[in-house]
């Protein structure tokens, strides 16, 4: 309900019936959630990792607007941001005053402004590589700017997958959408120099018991017992289909495999900030990747 209401606000399509339902949910549920956060909070700021469109709409739907911004160490602080008078969920906002943003031909986000650093200490080569001849800073991120000037980040340039057919694919677009599914913990999209895009998906251990109950499976079952179960495969296929709806046919995930365990910080596959160590995972799970292209 919270997500539907927020989405309706954004499109200007909220009906009286939806407003009444939302009001009821607010009294019964959302008010308690806000109370757990102090009761008076109206705004919050998110940074470091993408919040995701789904969560952004959820929080706005319960009465807490979360603003995302974007910046790097080299830019001193945020160079774009959403704020109460200028917000679009799913974006990182418009450029801050004194900052100019443009998108290069290869999709990289370029920045120009007085707050951007001048050089790396004792590293002239890295400094030269960081800037264009006319002073624009290479952020290393891939993104796009919409007609209203809002910037969206879709991935890292160094993570771009180039398929055997020459198609450039930003894995983060697919991975973030798949991770948004309630049953999914993590996801790695692969396909570099391969004929199609594929994915390795892990299941959320805390959510799995709820899936077992909803599908009349015996309590206490493990993910390993069900990785080939038709009902589980169908549930994850729904997540993949939703992710594929955001990209072209050539960029869509054609095959996926469910891992029988999750990746963790303890096993070295996740950073302390909960980001996937792509290179490590790809090296350690090469056999699983090979299975995706074996037939």
From TrEMBL:
N-terminal signal peptide: none
InterPro entries for the chain: AMP-dep_synth/lig_dom, ANL_N_sf
Nucleotide-binding recorded as keyword: no
GO molecular function: long-chain fatty acid-CoA ligase activity
Domain annotation AMP-dependent synthetase/ligase: ranges: 35-110
Keywords, sorted A to Z: Fatty acid metabolism, Ligase, Lipid metabolism
GO cellular component, one term: membrane
PANTHER family listed in its UniProt record: AMP-DEPENDENT SYNTHETASE_LIGASE DOMAIN-CONTAINING PROTEIN (PTHR43272:SF32), LONG-CHAIN-FATTY-ACID--COA LIGASE (PTHR43272)
Protein name: Unannotated protein
Organism: freshwater metagenome
């Amino acid at each position: 309900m919270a997500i539907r209401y927020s989405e309706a606000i954004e499109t200007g399509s909220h009906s009286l019936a939806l407003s009444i339902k939302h009001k009821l949910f607010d009294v019964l549920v959302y008010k308690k959630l806000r109370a757990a956060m102090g009761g008076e909070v109206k705004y919050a700021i998110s940074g470091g990792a993408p919040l995701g469109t789904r969560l952004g709409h959820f929080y706005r739907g319960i009465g807490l607007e979360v603003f995302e911004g974007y910046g790097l160490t080299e830019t001193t602080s945020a160079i774009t941001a959403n704020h109460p008078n200028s917000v679009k969920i799913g974006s990182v906002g418009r450029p801050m005053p004194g900052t100019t943003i443009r998108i290069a031909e290869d999709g990289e986000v370029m920045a120009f402004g007085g707050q951007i650093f001048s050089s790396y200490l004792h590293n002239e080569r890295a400094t030269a590589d960081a800037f264009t001849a006319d002073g624009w800073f290479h952020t290393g991120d891939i993104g796009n700017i919409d007609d209203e000037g809002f910037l969206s980040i879709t991935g890292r340039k160094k993570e771009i997958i180039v398929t055997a057919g020459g198609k450039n694919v930003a894995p983060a677009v697919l991975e973030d959408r798949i991770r948004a599914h309630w049953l999914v913990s993590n996801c790695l999209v692969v396909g570099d120099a391969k004929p199609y895009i594929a994915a390795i998906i892990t299941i959320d251990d805390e959510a799995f018991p709820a899936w077992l109950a909803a599908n009349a499976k015996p309590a206490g079952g493990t993910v390993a017992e069900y990785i080939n179960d038709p009902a589980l495969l169908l549930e994850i296929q729904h997540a993949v289909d939703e992710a594929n709806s955001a990209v072209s046919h050539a960029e869509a995930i054609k095959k996926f495999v469910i891992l029988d365990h999750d990746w963790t910080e303890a096993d070295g596959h996740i950073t302390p900030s909960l980001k996937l160590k792509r290179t490590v995972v790809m090296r350690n799970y090469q056999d699983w990747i090979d299975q995706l292209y074996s037939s």
